[in-house]
Amino acid sequence: MHFDPAILAEVALGAGGVAIWFAVYGVALFLTRPADVQPAPSTQDFGGEEPPAVVSLLTNRWEITEDAAESTLLDLAARRHLEFRQPANDPMQTTIHIRDAAVTGLNPYESMIFERVKGLAVNGMVPLTALTFRDENQASRFASRLHAAIVDDARARGLSRRRFSTPLVSALAAAGLIPALAISAAIALDMVRRHKFAEDWTGAGIAALFVWAIFSGIAGKKRGERDTALGQQVASRWLGLQSYLRGDESFANLPPSAVAVWDRYLSYGDAVGATRVCSAVIDLGMGNRKRVWSHFGGAWHRVKVRYPRFWRRYGQKAVPLFVKAILALAFSILVYKGSNRLPTFSNTVSGYVGLAVGLLFLSPLFYGIYTLVFAIIDVATPVKITGEVLWTEVWKSSGGGENSPPRPWLYHFAVDSGGVHAGGMGRGGGSSAHDDRTVAWGCPSQIVHRASVGDVVTLTARRWTRRILTLEIVERGRERALAAATASASPATAEDTGNIVLSAFGGGHPAGAFAAQALAVALQTPEIAPTQLMSVEEVGRAIGVPVVADGRRPAAVGPISVEAYLSANGGRRLILASVATGTAADLAMRMRRRFQPLPGIGDEAFAGENWAIGRRGRNVVMLQLHGDAKRIDPRNVYWLLSTAVSRLP
Amino acid sequence: MRLMTGLLIALGVIVLIVVILLVWAIATYNRLVRLRNQVESSWAQIDVQLKRRHSLIPNLVETVKGYAAHERGTLEAVINARNMAVQVGSAGPAQQAEVEGVLTQALGRLFALAEAYPNLKANENFIALQNELGNTENKIAYARQFYNSAIQTLNNAAQSFPTNLIAGMAGVHPRPYFEAVGAERDDVNVRF
User: Fold this and answer.
1) What is the C-alpha separation between A307 and A21, in angstroms, rounded?
2) Domain for residue B178, yes or no?
C-alpha cells in the first residue's frame, strides 16, 4: 500500500492549529487562576460580615465545596432560626428543630437550605442525616442552584468574579478560528491532492464552522471563579480565623449541637474547614442507599434496605418462569425416557458415581417442580401494599452494543410499608426505629417513572419474584414538591443559563450567542411576533413619542421573535421587544426571578433596570429600554408589558 | 556465628524500639508545645478584650458623673474594681477571673443606677459605651470558651499516661481554667 507523506503534512497542519489553540487556552487558565492569599495573623475575630457560604468560597481558593451548604445550615442554627438537639453521644443522632417557621431576611441560598429543612420536617423536626437526597438529579440541581446563588452573592459583594471574563471568552472564541482554518485548510489540501482540483469547498467550510463552534463552546464553558483585590483582603482576614481555629484541637471535634454554645464560631469554623465532626455529620448530598430515612407513618425513622440480586427469578415475569419450569420438566422426562429407569444405588464406587450422575439429571426435575409450584403460588397470591418510596435505581439492563447504550428494563424500588409485606423481614418486632427493614422490589421500566422518591404509593406485586405489577400514587412526596419549589424560587445566574438566554436576548459573548442560536434552532421556532401583542400606537403611548417598528430587524432567532421599536423622527431604537416560547422562555424567566416582582401581570412578571419581563403559560414577553426610553416612568413600561402579556395565548 | 546473629537481631530490635520511642517522644513534645502555645494565644485574646474593657470604663464613669455625680459610692466602686483589675493583669487567670467578676458586678450596679436617670439613658455617648461594653463582654465570653477549651486539651494531654512523662520532663503542667465568678455564675432565673 502506497503511503503519501503529504498526509502527514495535512494532519500536522490540523493538529498544529488545535495545539496552538490549546496552548492559548492553557495560558489563559494559568493567568486567571486564583492567586495565593497571604493569611492575616492568627486571630479570634471574625473577618467581616460575609455569610459563611461566601467565606467558604473565599477560603477554598474560590471553589465551592460542601462546606458552603453545611456552614449555612449551622449558621441558621447559630442565628436561632433552627435548633440542633443531640439526644445521645452520637452526633449522627442529632435532630433539627424549626424555631421560627416564618423567618424573613434570609438571602437566596440561606432560604434554600431553610426551605429544605422546613419542607422535610415532620412536626417541626427532621433528623440531621435525613437532609440527604435520594434522587441524584434532585441533588445535582439543588447543589447547582445553591452554588449559583452563593457565587451571585460573592460577586455582588465584589469578592469574586468569573474566571474567564467576557472579553477573554470572546478572544478565545476568536482564536478558535485558528484550528478551524487549519483543519479546513488540511481538508482542502487533501481534496486537491486526491482529485487534483476541487470546485466545491463546502465540506471544508462546514468543517471550519463546526470546529470553530466546538472551540467557541469550550471557550465559553464555565471555568469557575477567581479572586478580586477586595476578595483577597477579605479572604486574608478569614484565613486568620482559620489559623486560630485550626490551632484549637478540641474545636474540630465539636458536634453540630455545640452551635448552641459556640454560635457563629461553629458555622464560620465549618466554612473555613476547621471542623471535623460537623463536616462528617452534616451531609446535603446523596444519602446512603442502604440506610434510608422515611417519614411514612408520621414519624422519622431509618429503614435498612436490602437490594436482592442473587436469584435470577427476581423481577421476572410469570410466563418466562413457567416456560423455564416446563422446559426443565420436559428435559427430565426425556432423560428418564432415555435411560428408561430411575437411578439405583449400590454400595460401590460405581454406585456412588451413578447416584451423583442420577441426581445431576434429577436436578432439572427438582428445579422445574420448585419453579412451577412457586410461580403458580406467586401468580395466585399477589400482595397489595402502601408505603413511601425510599429509593429507586437501575437493577437490570438489556445489553447494549457499540452503537446502542444498555437500556434499563428493571429498577430496584425500595418502599417503606411500615413493616407490612416487607418480604418476610418486617419491623423485627422491636420498638426501636433501628429495626426497620425492607427488601427492594423489582419495578419494570414502563411504570417506574410514575413515582418519585418520597411519594406514597400503592403497589401490587408478586412476593416470590418481587416484581411490581401495578403502581399508583396515593400522595405526592414532599421532596418532589420541594424540588419544584426550589426550582421556581431559586435564582439562576449567568453561569447556568446566561450563555443561552442572555445572548438570545441581546447580550453575552459570541460563543454564547452561537450556542444560543444553535440550541434555539434545535428546539423550536417562534409562534408569536411582538407586533401581534402591542401595536406601534400602544408603544408610542407608553413612551410618549411616536414610534415605528423596525422592519429591517430579523423577525426570529430560534424560538425567540424580536422586534425593535424606533423613534418615528430620528430612527433611534427605544424599545426592543422579544417573545420567547418553550425552553428558552423558561430559562429567560429563571434568570430574572430574583429581581423586583410585578404582581398581577400574567402568571408572573419581574422588572429590573431598564427591562421588564412577564410570562403567561409557556410564553414570555420581554421589553428592554434603550436611549431616551430609559427616562420614562416605569409604570408606563409595566402597563405596556401587562398589555402584551394579556394577549399571549 | 549463631550467637553473633542472635546478638545482632537483639541489638536491631533494641535500636528499633529506641527509635520508635524517640519519634514518639519528639511528636508528643511538639504536640505539648503546640497546645501550650494555643493556651498562650487564647489567653492573649482574653487579655486584649479585658484591656479594651478597662479602657472603656473611665469614659463611662465620666459620662455617668455628668448626670449622677452624687452617686459617688457606685462610681467609686467601679473605679476601684477597674484599678484592681488593671493591677492584677499579669497575676494569672484565677486572680484575674476573681477581680473581673468584682468589676462585672460593679458595672451591673452602675447600669442599674442609670435606669433611674432618663437623661443619662438617652445620652448618645452613654448608649455607645454601653453597646461597646456589651460587645466586649460577648467577646470575652467567647474568648473564655476558647481559652478553657485549649486548657482542657492541654490538661488532658499533660495528665494522661504516657504523655504525662514527657509533659513532666518538658515542664508542661496543668493550668487553671478561666472560670466565671460572682454574678456571672449565678443561677439563671426562668420566669413563665
Assistant:
1) 49
2) yes
